[in-house]
Design a protein that fits this description.
The complex is a heterodimer of chains A (319) and B (313). Chain A is mainly alpha-helical. Chain A contains 17 helices and no strands. Chain A has two domains: 80 residues, no CATH class; 231 residues, MetI-like (MetI-like fold, Orthogonal Bundle). Chain B is flat and about 75 Å long. Helix content of chain B is 73%, strand content 0%. In chain B, helix 7 packs across helix 12, helix 12 crosses helix 14 and helix 14 packs antiparallel against helix 18. The chains are: A mainly alpha (319), B mainly alpha (313).
């Protein structure tokens, strides 16, 4: 297992590099040439497919809504228009939602990290007698569940969490999938000798977990944090079923209501001037709202990226 | 004497002595266990409601039993065939594209070396994963808008007479749903394969090159066998989710015109069970869903064990 990890951190790939370069300098055979051309063309095409909608949204957010609406703008902004962003900054609901989302994401992620890392570490220990039994209890919940209604009744009625942000933070704190990833990480990358040495020094389990295991787990902490933050920021279902007070709505629910109220058919002759006006207003904000709500997630990734491959890789090895 | 010996080997005895020895570990695992018992196992007990007629005054425990009435109502209901078919077909459709495409994409990315191009492709292909379903559906709606949408205009090049909104058509719903899902998750899902591929010993490629293997042969004989265990694990896991079409995106994409092909179990339970407060019925449908999922997982796992010698448990 140790060997596999060492291989996986990519350094051993560099060791083989000179050879690879030499073989590349050799002339490619015909099938290889065709393969390379097809491969590169396809990947470039895919690049376009991934990037086009993103560029479109950005351009549309700073182009006059009428030009976007009539299809004049398809890639590069055809005019400059910042009223959409100005309207967004004045739109109070969005910023309330932003604040609510930040609170939910921060508290939820901290709670989740604490609980899953504690469990993941304990379950990674070979000498933990209850490990097998507990793993069974834990994994069973991945494959079977009570379903929506019993969960809903428990949280909103028995536990009285209805219309409270607590209902978006506490019930989703434990992810068994993440516990398994963490456990696998500890099993494969925390040297057994460290524990032996610490035990001789009289270090108890909890101290060892906090002082030794956690500092060595940075890549997997980064990965699990990213999963949590992205998942919580982007979801709206829990808020939809547990919250009724719009002042508590997270951002996704706010923008859902904002964007879906706008689905009036523009060709419908029965739509009045007032509706059209409010539609145009939302139309002008639409792409800006998308940018404003997605940006925090897109800027997070580059920060955790350097830990990412390592964290995922270890997790993907079967423990 | 003999019974004392058995006692010392018993689970309870060993557990007790281990709790004394490894107290810290038990403390560490306790919060997660408590959360799971409360939020996973208690609701599992709550499925008993599926066999009851819920009365809010009497609560779950006090409500009267009605046997299999709720299930019967679901199986004989007007929507049963549609809901089941939609859930199955959307799931299989997603699996048919969502399972092989990340593998192919990962193999293609893996064979362009380790340069800037590879990193750029990866970086950009991850981006859609960070977008929420609310935003994705807003984008789909904008792109498919009949008069102004970019995709609609593009499709009109091939079929100038198409004037109907694609999103209102029941026949196109599944394709739009699945393809947008592939767009969003393709880059992200291939991370795990790329990770597995980077663990392949480079000497294997060198040896293959010396033997005159072409790039395609290296993929078939080195790359695919190396990622096969990952492939099987992911396939078994997705079979266990065959009846779980995620609620969030489907619900947002639904409109009265496409409902015939967009109503799935998750949205049906939400509307029938939660919005109309028919709790007993909603629980029964949910339980049926969980049971099918569990059965599919067990069957796939069994088949994988027999044919590939590989199993989750």
């Amino acid at each position: 297992m140790h060997n596999a990890v060492a291989k996986n951190n990519g350094r051993s790939l560099n060791a083989g590099c000179p050879h690879l370069k030499r073989s590349k300098r050799k002339r490619m055979s015909r099938p290889d040439k065709i393969f390379t051309i097809v491969n590169y063309s396809f990947l470039i095409l895919m690049l376009g497919v991934f990037i086009y909608p993103l560029v479109f949204v950005f351009s549309a957010s700073i182009t006059k809504p009428s030009e976007v609406l009539y299809g004049k703008m398809w890639l590069i902004p055809t005019s400059l228009y910042f009223d959409g962003y100005v309207a967004i900054f004045k739109y109070k609901d969005i910023w309330t939602g932003y604040l609510n989302s930040v609170i939910i994401v921060v508290l939820g992620t901290l709670l989740s990290l604490a609980v899953t890392f504690m469990a993941g570490y304990a379950l990674s220990r070979k000498d933990f007698y209850a490990k097998k039994f507990l793993m069974w209890i834990f994994t069973f919940t991945m494959f079977f569940g009570g379903g929506l209604i019993p969960t809903y009744l428990l949280i909103s009625e028995s536990l009285n969490m209805y219309d409270s942000v607590v209902s978006l933070i506490i019930p989703s704190a434990v992810s068994v999938w993440n516990i398994i990833l963490i456990r696998t990480y500890f099993i494969s990358s925390l040297p057994q000798d460290l524990l032996e040495a610490a035990k001789i020094d009289g270090c108890d389990n909890i101290r060892f977990f906090i002082m030794v295991a956690i500092p060595l787990a940075v890549p997997i902490i980064a990965v699990i944090t990213l999963y949590n933050v992205v998942g919580r920021w982007n979801s709206y279902f829990d808020a939809l079923i547990f919250l009724s007070d719009p002042a508590k709505y997270p951002l996704q629910l706010v923008i859902r209501n904002l964007l879906t109220q706008n689905q009036i058919n523009s060709l419908d002759p029965n739509v009045g001037i007032l509706e059209l006006e409010s539609m145009m207003k939302v139309e002008g904000m639409k792409y800006g709202v998308i940018i404003v709500s997605t940006l925090p997630m897109l800027v997070i990734y580059p920060f955790v990226q350097k830990y990412f491959i390592k964290g995922i890789m270890v997790g993907s090895l079967k423990g | 004497m003999k019974s004392g010996f058995a006692y010392k080997n018993g689970f309870a005895y060993k557990l007790k002595s281990d709790v004394k020895k490894n107290t810290g570990l038990y403390i560490l695992v306790l919060p997660a266990l408590a959360f799971l018992i409360l939020f996973s196992y208690v609701p599992m007990y709550g499925v008993i409601l599926g066999f009851k007629e819920y009365d809010s005054l009497l609560g779950i425990m006090g409500s009267p039993f009605v046997g299999f009435d709720n299930f019967r109502r679901f199986f004989t209901g007007y929507y049963f065939a549609d809901v089941m078919w939609n859930t199955f077909s959307i799931s299989l459709y997603s699996l048919a594209l969502g399972f092989p495409l990340p593998i192919i994409f990962a193999l293609m990315i893996n064979s362009v070396g380790n340069g800037k191009f590879k990193r750029t492709v990866q970086m950009i292909s991850y981006a859609p994963y960070f977008i929420s379903s609310v935003v994705i559906v807003a984008l789909i709606t904008a792109f498919f808008d009949t008069s102004t949408g970019v995709v609609s205009n593009f499709l009109r090049l091939f079929n100038p007479n198409a004037s109907q909104n694609t999103l209102n058509s029941a026949s196109a719903f599944k394709t739009v749903f699945v393809l947008s899902g592939v767009w969003q998750s393709l880059g992200w899902s291939c991370i795990i394969y790329i990770a597995a591929l980077s663990g392949v010993d480079p000497q294997m490629y060198e040896a293959a090159t010396l033997d005159g293997a072409s790039k395609m042969q290296k993929i078939i004989y080195i790359d695919i066998p190396s990622i096969a265990p990952t492939m099987i694990t992911l396939l078994i896991l997705s079979m266990g989710n065959i009846l779980s079409v995620g609620f969030e995106k489907v619900y947002l994409m639904q409109n009265p015109d496409n409902l015939a092909s967009s109503e799935v179990i998750a949205t049906y339970v939400y509307k029938k069970g939660l919005l109309s407060s028919d709790y007993g019925f909603g629980t029964a449908v949910g339980l049926f869903n969980s049971l099918i999922n569990f059965a599919m997982l067990a069957v796939t796992n069994f088949v994988a064990k027999k044919t590939a010698g590989y199993s989750l448990w």
